[in-house]
Amino acid sequence: MTQHDTPSPTRNQAPVDPITVEIIQSSLRAITDEMFATMRKTAMSSIIYEVLDFGVAMFDADGQLASSGSGIPGFIGMLEPGVKSVRAKYHRPGDVGPGDIFMTNIPHHGGVSHMNDVVLILPVFAGDTLIGWLANKAHWVDLGGAFPGGISADARDLYQEGLQLPCIKVIEAGQVNQAVLDIIQANSRQPDISKGDFWAGVASMRAGERRFKALAEKYGTPAVLHAIADYIETGERMARAALKALPHGRFDATERTDDGIELRTTITITDDVFEVDLRGNPPTRADALNCTLDATMVNAQMIFMAICGPDNLANSGTFRPIRLLVDDDSMFAARYPAAVSVYYETTVTGFDLLWKALAPALPERLTAGHYASICGTFLGGPHPETGQALGIVEPQLGGWGAAATRDGVNALYTGYHGDTFNVPAEVAEQRNGLMVDRLSLSEAPGGEGRHMGGRGIRLHYRIMADGWWITTAYVRTENGPWGLDGGRPGSTNFIEVVRASGERSRHAACTALPLNAGDVVEVVTAHGGGYGDPAERPARQVAEDVKNGYVSPDRAAEVYGYRGDPA
Amino acid sequence: MTQIRAASDVGGTFTDLVYYEIDDRTGEARHITEVKAHTTPPNFQQGVMDALDKAGIDARQMAFFAHGSTVVINTLTERKGAAVGLITTQGFRDVLEIARGNRPDFFNLLYEKPAPFVPRHLRREVAERMTYKGEVAQPLALDASEDSEGLDAILDHFRAEGVEAIAICLLHAYANPAHEQALAQAIAARWPEVAVVASHQICREWREYERTNTAVLNAYVQPRASAYLTQLQDALTTKGFDGAFYVMQSNGGIDTVEAARRTPITIVESGPASGVLGAAALGELLGVRNLIAFDIGGTTAKCSLVDDGQVSLTSQYMIERDDRSAGYPIMTPVVDIVEIGNGGGSIGWIDDFGKLHVGPQSAGADPGPVAYGRGGRDATTTDANLMLGRVNPDYFIGGEVKADMAAVEAAFARLGQPLGLDAVQAARGVIRIANHNMANALKLVSINRGYDPRDFALVAFGGGGGMHAAALAEELNIPSVIVPAKASVFSAWGMLMSDLRRDYVQTHAVAMDAHAADGITDALGALRDQALAAYADEGVKPGRVRFDQALELRYVGQAHTVKVAFDHDRLTADDIDRVLADFHTAYEKTYTYALDNPVELVSLNLTAFAAIDKPTLPKLATTDDPAGALNAARKPDRRVDFDAQGVHQTAIYDRDRLPAGTTFTGPAIVEEAGTTTVVLPGQRVRVDDYGNLHIETGKATA
């Protein structure tokens, strides 16, 4: 068993006036905001600048998270173990110096979710003093391995999932190790993009480094170190205050995966501890639907933030009250070299499980279940005109659960995502050489209730050249998202491939399924769960639903007793 | 007959009017005059007519009238627009509701998406399809068929539901608008009374959600905005006005009233834009080409950068976007303004964890700052300026109000108590945090965009501009601050000093190599012809039109582009190489590295200016006894707290009595009815020929 506790704070008692402390702390946020903006402007692939599959963060000299750039909540707590892994490996005097940048992508060694997420780490010095760290992690579209894009539910171990970068010093005193970059480019199916995304990460961290050093120059290193320590302590005080206001007790949930395995959790909330117990779940899987301990910890952090108050600081201090209990060598704490490329589906399933445990007790913070699958869609093939090899990596939008006071939100990214943008059809068609035939709300039945679950989507990609492929590993393809208080479950996530011949086949998981010109991939995502008994939905509202086509007249008659009254 | 040229700007409280006469013999401008009248909602045109009456202007003499109004932004924020129907390409009517799927408030699992401006049943589809190259993949079909209800059924539904305006957005219409044009004509033929706008009339850029939303918001505001402009025009015509009528645009230029009536969404940010335009026009007059316009009002501070005389534009403008909400995009060129929730009325407060914050909550006009004595209990930035002696309690708001200093001191004592700070320390804290917030906003428009503040002057206006500018310039190493004369009617004045301006952005996505040259030449030529033809229709002679051209480039795969200016009519293969070299240089300057990866063109930018006549401004009287004049402008000294720079017995000047050419050194305070200018110890001040204050901070230019 692994008990994952966070160490106690280091204290710095330098006398600095409270106004200066506040100004430095606000500047910390500005540093990570600038790192975030720079990455977004320089990155080479839409998985980074639109999907925002990247994160930036800054740390104190001990590697404790101080501030992070906004984007995906699922990455905020992820980078801290990465910095710790660098400190553990490079622990001798002189190992870490100004101008160094480290690089890692082995999930089981810390700070990484799957191998496509390449982490860059930069130590910041004021003179000779190490004053903190910056880190940047981003999803690279291809790092080699057995499967294009590096992702497949069929992967059996890490060796099939791409090139391993075992916490190496890729830039030393400002000098890049060209051999490493050459190896990466040689291994990637998208070498130009990999090179561009590497330099985008470096530019982002150097922008942060300039600001960080300027802060130390302006206010003095002791004042900055004090302000960072105080910031982390403030995070802890906020979290502990919020914890006291939460309902205390034990909260359980179970859920069945698509392959029929039961998952379970017990969450215990007291005045001092937010304990997430995930013991008793299945062992490490033979396929790639495993996640590492660090990824599981992030789930506990995200649900903790959601219920404590989304406006609170999110730093190392905030997360100190969290205790995570999980079996070693299990699907929530896989051991090296277990395959983890589809970790994101297991992690969103795990997040949904924690959400389900707490939702009945916290209707003012949590909705009924959402579509709960990243629905990562990997497509590739030659451009129909240029023949250039293309690779698309896209999560899909889906329906969110209804709340105690209102209907669910239609077509939003998962709770694991944040300020993630979809790729416009007009841009996708030019860039990727396919056609988007449809992007609409799904009209499948499901999610009915006093408040209706949000609608999932239909997205149809028409393939325009032969020699294409698609890889997916959707979950929630059998059981729809859970309703609350009598609300109906939502619908399910899947794809259908419609061949040029008209033949249809339905898939949840597929690896490099061949596609040719004229084939259409129909992505369908789930509606969220309903909230409350459908019989309690006012007739006028049902009539509006029918008028707007959110519910068909037949389904409305069946579930709500609708008789064709006008809205 | 003497000609009059006038500009009016409708604000929340006052409607400003600035005008001048042109000497019919010499052609020179004379008598620049300003008038204020009360703003008269909801009949805003009445306030404008009142101002004209107050000025005693004979409308028959008016050759030129420019107008700035908040009618569009108010219609949007108050949700008082028209019932809109939307027609899209088949398969895409939900794009408006799906939006981009993002959730900025990312820890919040009870996030609510902004509601679309058109409900689902009023979003209908027609069968048609263009490709990204602008080729017809499927012809437009208006008749009903097996999988399409047809236009007649759509319009019947819209009529039955009381639709007042129709927006059209078809896929790839930016590349070929033929289907949108045909659909708009078909609607006009079937239903001539309804307002119709198609997306390509407003913007020619890709990204269907943004373009659809832009067309929808245009339709939403069109009936009301158009009615308002017509009422104003009618009121002016009734008085005999038959001159040229222009409307202030969000892009920092003015355009004809006919254009504004067609696509009123382009005037959405005209208020803030005209302030930036005023700063740019002042810079033009003074020969200052690089400046940052900085406007501190009651609840917010706004800033925008002017580079080599050009206002900065963004095509990523959004309304109601913040950390909590994804907001709504409006894809038209808008002056790139960063706005933060810190103004004179912003409240200082302490959170549950002992951190002092300033804003974004504001005391507003009612109850207003504590000093107003109207029941405000929360200390504001304005109160802090009073507390520290920077603002004169006996000349508060031009002497209209006697500041309640006992209440101010008590408010700061309360604020500071939990932090162990006394009232003065708390007031200093509020100023320091407010300044820090404003400095961050100034960094966002300068350093974060790759500009060095040392190359810029800070033009500070609005009620609070002069109080904070000197300290901010010091903080950011900005060498000089300009506090304009007549800052209170700055926006209206800017319109009189502005050329006509139209921005054309055309998505033209191609690999940037020698093969692209002819296509770019043709496309830019077509845009220039379009601009010239539009101006010619309005009687503007081609000789008055000048163009700025730029190409938006990026490395293949990226989303963000870098603009490279280009000034030839024709593009050759050599020009392509030069443009590429400029791109790599500009990219490296901003991001510290360049790549040898392939580069692609995304969009063509064309700005068409049409020159208008501008007045030469009258100068202030100079003095042959500067020392005597300076002394005559002195008011009684007082002690002023400059925080880290000490507490000083400080000279106070009456701005209205400072003649041109006067110089003095800080610490000093300059008072006028609308505002106060703070000069820090050691800073040098000069009054220029037009009455503007120039503060030199002693920071060297880069």
From TrEMBL, chain A:
Q: Which GO terms describe its cellular component?
A: cytosol
Residue ranges annotated for the Hydantoinase B/oxoprolinase domain, each copy included: 17-534
Q: Name one GO biological process term.
A: glutathione metabolic process
Q: Which GO terms describe its molecular function?
A: 5-oxoprolinase (ATP-hydrolyzing) activity
The record ties this protein, via InterPro entries, to: Hydantoinase_B (IPR003692), Oxoprolinase-like (IPR045079)
Superkingdom assignment: Bacteria
Q: Which positions, given as ranges, span the membrane? A: none
Per the record, a Pfam family? Hydantoinase_B
| UniProt-recorded name of the protein | N-methylhydantoinase B
In which organism is this protein found?
Rhodothalassium salexigens DSM 2132
TrEMBL record, chain B:
* GO terms under cellular component: cytosol
What region holds the Acetophenone carboxylase-like C-terminal domain? Answer: 514-696
What sequence ranges are listed for the domain Hydantoinase A/oxoprolinase? Answer: 211-503
Question: One GO MF term, please?
Answer: 5-oxoprolinase (ATP-hydrolyzing) activity
Domain Hydantoinase/oxoprolinase N-terminal per the UniProt entry, residue ranges? 9-187
Among the record's GO biological process terms, what is one? Answer: glutathione metabolic process
Instruction: Specify the domain of life of the species encoding this protein.
Output: Bacteria
What PANTHER family would the database entry show?
5-OXOPROLINASE RELATED, HYPOTHETICAL 5-OXOPROLINASE (EUROFUNG)-RELATED
Name of the protein = N-methylhydantoinase A
**Annotated organism of origin:** Rhodothalassium salexigens DSM 2132
